[in-house]
Specification:
Chain lengths: ~290, ~325
């Protein structure tokens, strides 16, 4: 049996490419990059190119997850609701082809937008700061692509799991809320319930492991180690953690002697991002295989 | 060879039984009409054949493959016109067909197929989002024809088409059947099935109530025809003559007309010759076949007498149409 994943992905990408969605997102990212670069160049004096690149971290970590979730949340359920999935399944592609093809197609949309934004950043860096921190730029760009893919995966996974657009949207919004607004309540709040006090700066290792499983933390922690900037994850703060703790990475908060274990190192963020890519897609795949259409 | 076979196929949604213990067989090369009122379970059956839905009990095979376990082997050889589908609004009609050709690894010319289903060249370049229901139906039909399938499964193919479109669809079905394709299609309108089908299966309330040729169904219900003869002198003698002929189940006289219910087609000629032989002068003959619509109503109501009466009553304007539930509600 030949696989139709690539055919479905190409069609999905072509379809998305004709929508305002792709171009809206490309425009948004390019706009962020342009405004960011020009503003830094115009307002701050002794900024070097690598610092300017680092400043992009903040708008990207806020906007990219939202954009990627919007790109993905209708991927499968949208076809289910409109009925075009019957046209598709009546042809040789099967459900596996649909989930994976849709995932690739939507990843393509987000990756195109990120790549264009980073090319613009490259050009602006050259024009405004007369240099490009090439390896930083490349590593940061690659990490950002993975970050975008992770959130597309989450959204496509959700869209394959549910039977209505409304449910997909509700779950996707919920996921974003958990990562941005509720994470501290879930982690530090749990710690508080167990120990009757908020987590100290030098806290138990298990807590750090769980706390850093937020994909946005994973991205910013690793990005900070790749580029200059000192940008911290965007999240609602409830004061359960000490002010100092907000500024530190898991490795810096490690209480034990010697180096922090590998799972608290910045690069472990890659594993966290892959986790949030694979698990939702696997759940969506499993549920969609069993769905009644 | 059998193209489609269901064995004890049952689908329940909670307390609701959509199809119950369905045993159906569609032979290779035939055009099979799957008939039933809306909500009878036609789409559920078809959705099971296409693995959109999984049976609660029983199983189905399509082209010899299990519809659930071996769905991937089925789809390359089947053309599907689903019900309640939508197209990709941003892609052109032509791109849809190209996509179908790509997935089926076929070498069809998209324009040939779109020509066959009657989608005009300027429409093929338009986005499918601008299409009318009928155009979408034609487009899906073109996609179903890609790769010269061995079996066409069509759910309510005539929906959204005007009478002209329906005729074209029927011609298309006929020509596919002539080239050896098995066609299985559902409809809730009997005349759409009547024109093209070799056999029909009637589904009502999840149960298969009849499977036969249309002639066979007519016969088995004893519908036959009504002969109305206008005689120069219609009398009791003529009535007795007619009633005594084999194949005539009833005869009655009123004024100049003699009305006979005929179940055997051969009896019609006998009625004429016998009446002439016994000295009657025939001015006029009118023959009315029992309409397929009433046959359908009879089968799906499960109460033949009421259905027959309802049919007659609705044609006779002098009688109040008390059997029509709609008029009761309206009144």
């Amino acid at each position: 049996m030949t696989s139709h994943i690539a055919t479905v992905a190409r069609k999905d990408f072509a379809d998305a490419g004709r929508s305002k969605l792709l171009w809206g997102i490309v425009g948004l990212f390019v706009g962020i990059v342009v405004i960011g670069y020009v503003a830094i160049w115009a307002t701050l004096d002794d900024v070097v190119a690598s610092e300017a690149l680092g400043f992009l971290n903040f708008p990207i970590q806020v906007v990219l997850p939202v954009a990627a979730l919007i790109v993905g949340y209708m991927a499968v359920v949208g076809e289910r609701q409109s009925g075009s999935i019957k046209l598709l399944l009546g042809l040789p592609p099967n459900r596996t082809d649909i989930v994976l093809g849709k995932l690739l197609g939507r990843i393509g949309v987000v990756v195109v937008a990120i790549v264009i934004a980073f090319i613009v950043a490259f050009v602006l860096s050259l024009v405004l700061f007369r240099s490009v921190p090439f390896t930083d730029w490349l590593a940061f760009g690659a990490l950002t692509v993975l970050f975008g893919i992770t959130f597309v995966g989450m959204a496509v996974g959700v869209s394959a799991s549910v039977s209505s657009r409304g449910r997909s949207m509700a779950i996707v919004v919920g996921i974003y809320m958990v990562f941005v607004a509720l994470w501290e309540l879930l982690t530090a709040g749990t710690y508080y319930l167990i120990y009757d006090e908020g987590p100290p700066v030098e806290v138990e290792t298990w807590y750090l492991l769980i706390d850093q499983f937020n994909p946005i933390f994973a991205y910013t922690n690793f990005a900070n180690s790749l580029v200059d900037g000192g940008i911290f994850p965007f999240q609602f703060q409830y004061g359960l953690e000490s002010t100092e703790a907000y500024q530190l990475t898991p490795a810096e908060r490690y209480a034990g002697s010697g180096d922090a274990p590998f799972f608290l190192q910045e690069w472990f963020g890659i594993v966290v991002l892959l986790f949030w890519l694979v698990v939702p897609v696997a759940i969506g795949y499993y549920r969609f295989q069993r769905a009644e259409l | 060879m059998v193209a489609i076979r269901t064995s004890g196929l049952t689908k329940r949604y909670g307390d609701l039984t959509a199809i119950a213990d369905l045993d159906l067989e569609v032979r290779e090369g035939e055009v099979f009409g799957f008939l039933g009122p809306n909500g009878a379970g036609k789409s559920t059956t078809i959705n099971t054949l296409l693995d959109f839905t999984r049976p609660t009990e029983g199983s189905a095979t399509v082209l010899g493959y299990d519809a659930q376990e071996e769905a991937d082997r089925i789809s390359p050889r089947v053309g599907v016109l689903p019900e309640g589908f939508d197209c990709y609004p941003r892609l052109t009609g032509r791109r849809h067909v190209e996509f179908a050709i790509e997935t089926k690894d076929a070498d069809d010319d998209p324009d040939d197929l779109l020509e066959r289903v009657g989608l005009a060249p300027e429409d093929r370049r338009r986005r499918a989002g601008e299409y009318s229901t009928g155009m979408r139906q034609r487009l899906a039909m073109a996609m179903a024809l890609v790769g010269d399938p061995d079996l066409l499964i069509m759910d309510e193919p005539s929906s959204g088409l005007d009478p002209h479109g329906i005729r074209e669809m029927q011609e298309l079905v006929r020509s596919e059947a002539d080239s050896g394709t098995t066609v299985f299609f559902s409809s809730h309108i009997l005349e759409h099935v009547d024109a093209v089908c070799d056999r029909i299966g009637v589904l009502n309330d999840g149960h298969l109530v009849a499977v036969d040729t249309i002639e066979g169904l007519r016969e088995s219900i004893g519908g036959g025809a009504t002969m109305t003869l206008t005689l120069a002198d219609a009398d009791e003698h003529a009535r007795e003559t007619a009633a005594s002929i084999e194949g005539v189940t009833a005869a009655s006289v009123s004024g100049q007309t003699l009305e006979c219910s005929v179940v055997d087609p051969l009896a019609k000629a006998t009625v004429v010759t016998e009446l002439t032989r016994t000295g009657a002068t025939i001015h006029d003959i009118r023959i009315e076949e029992v309409s397929l619509e009433s046959l359908f109503t009879t089968l799906t109501n499960g109460d033949s007498e009421r259905a027959q009466r309802s049919h007659i009553a609705s044609e006779d304007t002098t009688e109040p149409v008390t059997q029509n539930p709609d008029s009761e509600v309206a009144g």
